[in-house]
Amino acid sequence: MEFVFEKEKNKDNIEDLEIFIKETKDSPGALMPIMQETQEIFGYLPLEMLQLISRRTNTPLADIYGVATFYSQFTFIPMGEYKINVCLGTACYVKGAQGILEAIEKELGIKHGDTTPDLKFSIIEARCLGDCGLAPVFTINDDVYPHVKKDDIKGILDKYR
Ligand code: FES
């Protein structure tokens, strides 16, 4: 899925990033904090900003890509308004979390790690949400859905549509 990066809408964010790059770029190992700041500001790494970092730091774009793809903290996809965190930890897995994940994917028409084209929902896999007694469990932003069944999925998602 291709998402359009709107420069005009992001004008202030771009300015913030430009200032951060200016202040940071001459320190050793500056690339990592610059990329972290980029993700912090935009919620992901827009291609246009990677190109900007490349120009400002005189780093080949391929090297920047290399770092971005090596570390799982970085994403090239913008986050949706509602972040669905599906727990696939052991306790949830044995109670059918995989089926829950697939039901959510089917309902939204996207795979985990992806965002719907209207930027409403993103699906993320979690390892353990830290409350295994609720298995299988997923969250939508701060809302927790415990002991969830496949048949509940549509009704739950409809609340956010
Ligand atoms: S395994 Fe799902 S909350 Fe722990």
SSE blueprint:
Layout: H1 11-24, H2 31-42, H3 47-57, H4 61-70, E1 82-87, H5 90-94, H6 97-108, E2 121-126, E3 138-140, E4 143-145, H7 153-158
Parallel strand pairs: 1-2
Antiparallel strand pairs: 1-3, 3-4
Helix pairs in contact: 1-2, 2-3
Bound molecules: FE2/S2 (inorganic) cluster.
Explain the overall architecture.
With 161 residues, this protein is of the alpha+beta class. The protein has two domains: 11-70; 82-158, 3-Layer(aba) Sandwich (Glutaredoxin). 43% of the residues lie in helices and 11% in strands. It has helices at residues 11-24, 31-42, 47-57, 61-70, 90-94, 97-108, 153-158, and strands spanning 82-87, 121-126, 138-140, 143-145. The chain has a four-stranded mixed beta sheet, covered by helices on one side. A hairpin with a 2-residue loop joins strand 3 and strand 4. The structure holds FE2/S2 (inorganic) cluster (FES). Residues 87, 89-92, 128-129, 131-132, 135, 137 line the site of FE2/S2 (inorganic) cluster. The site of FE2/S2 (inorganic) cluster has 11 residues, from helix 5.
SS element count, helices: 7
Shape: elongated
Measured on Cα atoms, how large is the radius of gyration? 18 Å
The spatial strand order of the largest sheet comes to 2-1-3-4
CATH architecture of the largest domain: 3-Layer(aba) Sandwich
Please write the string of helix (H) and strand (E) elements.
Answer: HHHHEHHEEEH
